[in-house]
Amino acid sequence: MNRSVIFKTYNQDQLSLLPPSYDDLVPKNHPVRIINTIVDHLDISNLEKSYKGGGTSSYHPRMLLKVIIYAYLRNLYSSRKIEQALCENIHFMWLSGQSKPDHNTINDFRGKRLKGQFKKIFNQVVLLLNDQGYLSLKEIYVDGTKLEANANKYTFVWAKSIKTNRGKITKQLKELWTYVEKVYADEEQVPNTPNFEAIDPEKVSQTIDQINAALADKPIDKKVKQKLNYAKRNWPDTIEKYNKQEAILGKRGSYSKTDPDATFMRMKDDHMQNGQLKAGYNIQGSSNNQFIVNYTLEQTPADTTTLKRHLQEHTDSFDQLPNTLTADAGYGSEENYQELEDQNIEAFVKYNYFHKEQKEAKSKTDKKPFTANKLYYNEQTDTHYCPMGQAMESIGNYQKKTANGYVQTITKYQAKNCRGCPLRSLCHKAKGNRIVERNHNLARLKAKAKEKLMSEQGIAHRKQRCWDIEAIFGNIKQNMNFKRFMLRGIEKVETEFGLIAMAHNLKKMSLAQ
Predict the structure, then answer these.
(1) Half-sphere exposure (CA, 13 Å, Cβ side) for 411?
(2) b/e per residue, 183-212, with b = 16+ CB within 10 A?
(3) Rounded to the nearest 10 degrees, what angle do helices 61-73 and 79-88 cross at?
(4) Given this model, what pLDDT does residue 335 score?
């Protein structure tokens, strides 16, 4: 028996008695309504004050803020695609009140108006989430990730290259002066030796002039004359270029010419985790319950030197310090441990070789039993003991500074007589008696950290860190498909990551309801 097919009515010319409202087309529990409600309650008075009176009317900053945050929540990062969505997407049309700013307006608002303003707006949302019980500011999990900058990876400047090229100029100036000394070899009066340090363009130019003056009345080799002419034309400008590049570099080892604030970093951005050198920024984030609590951007690839500033940013933003902080071994330095102790923050921060120590403790054999950290130390007598039981007494200490200027104190201990010791070949390979070094403060802080990490509470914090902050970075890079910044310059990039962080928090909030 054949049955006739029945289709639903389809008539594009069907008229409605009343035109539909966009509000009726947006579901009540849709994320766009959450963004609309939250942004309506934010204080954006500082943002509004940035507008100057006169001229034509401006789009309201609150409307633009809503649109950009919702766009980032929907993985729309291009200003042109946001412009298109404002004309085609019902949710964007409802949110904007049918306003249609073009891509230039959107990009200027994001890159210029929000620069230096957005972090305070983000902090207001974090405090709101804290008040409503979605997250806690007292217990944070810290980690870092690297994101690629909007920069050409082939236009770079390296600090080591500048240093090498400066050295070449200095070397060639010395070679030219050696030629002058050969010319004056048979004369009693030799011209005064010039300054060869290729630091200042004027000094380099003066040195070349001094060499030319010394050879003015002398027969000069043709190749030497050509080199002097080339040096006079090019080297002062080259040194001036190096000085400008070093001013941009600061303490960094590299930067990109298309985004001078970006530093070249090793990034694991493929499934094989192969390190690729790209211009980027080191994003430092702290989280609680998979909500981003705080973020800072760093131009250094190492996490070790970033924690102090990240903590200060937390204090400045919320006028309080966290009670507990959990981080991986990238933050386990003496300076960081001391800072956390001074601030009275309970720290669950791993140090280098923490996991290796646990494996060695479970292993029945020890492959390196004579390393300095495994030698017995008597704290009362301040004495180390070598594997043969010989006392190693202190022979003094010295200090060294870290990259952040933190001063470490290292004590040296030396054995009295290693001659004829049957374990010498296994113990050490130095010619004289063995010397070991010990940082007493770091050893104390590591022992304290180990005790906390191995406690029941420490194990729980270490497990939670993996699915808390690391899951956020995974969501941003994979689900939100944000792997490369759209803007250039650290201030604009900081605003852009703030938008990503805000979108992540509000999306998670909407899912939690």
Answers:
(1) 15
(2) beeeeeeeeeebebebeebebbbebbebbb
(3) 100
(4) 94
Question: Treating both helix axes as pointing N-terminal to C-terminal, what angle do 222-249 and 159-183 enclose, rounded to 10 degrees?
Answer: 150
SS (H, E, C) 389-417: CCEEEEEEEEEEECCCCCEEEEEEEEECC
Q: Say how far residue 403 (Cα) sits from the centre of its chain.
A: 15
Report the C-alpha gap between 107 and 84 in whole angstroms: 13
Distance, in Å, from the CA atom of 47 to the CA atom of 68, rounded to the nearest integer, reads 15
- E strand or H helix at 63: helix 61-73
Query: How far apart, in whole angstroms, are the C-alpha atoms of residue 298 and residue 486?
Result: 17
56: Cβ contacts below 8 Å, ≥ 6 apart: none
Of 402, 39, 437, 38, which is closest to residue 251 (Cα–Cα)? 402
| Positive or negative torsion for Cα 249, 251, 255, 260 | negative
Element at 25 (helix H, strand E): helix 22-25
The sign of the CA dihedral 115, 120, 126, 128 is negative
Q: How far is CA 361 from CA 355, 365, 377, in A?
A: 10, 9, 19
DSSP state of 330: G
CA distance linking residue 290 with residue 434, whole number of Å: 50
Listed in sequence order, the residues at least 6 apart from 100 whose beta carbon sits closer than 8 Å to its beta carbon are 83, 86, 87
226-232 LR contacts (CB < 8 Å, sep 24+): 227/172, 227/176, 228/176, 231/172, 231/173, 231/176, 232/205, 232/208
CA distance 89 to 75: 14
Instruction: Indicate the pLDDT class of residue 256, thresholds 50, 70 and 90.
Output: very high
pLDDT tens profile 141-158: 999 999 999 998 888 999
pLDDT digits (tens, 9 = 90+) for 197-227: 767 888 888 888 888 888 777 777 888 888 8
Q: What is the mean pLDDT of the chain?
A: 89
Cα separation, 123 vs 46, in Å, equals 14
| Cα–Cα distance, 297 to 295 (Å, whole number) | 7
User: Does residue 75 come out as left (phi exceeding 0), alpha (psi in the -120 to 50 range) or beta?
Assistant: left
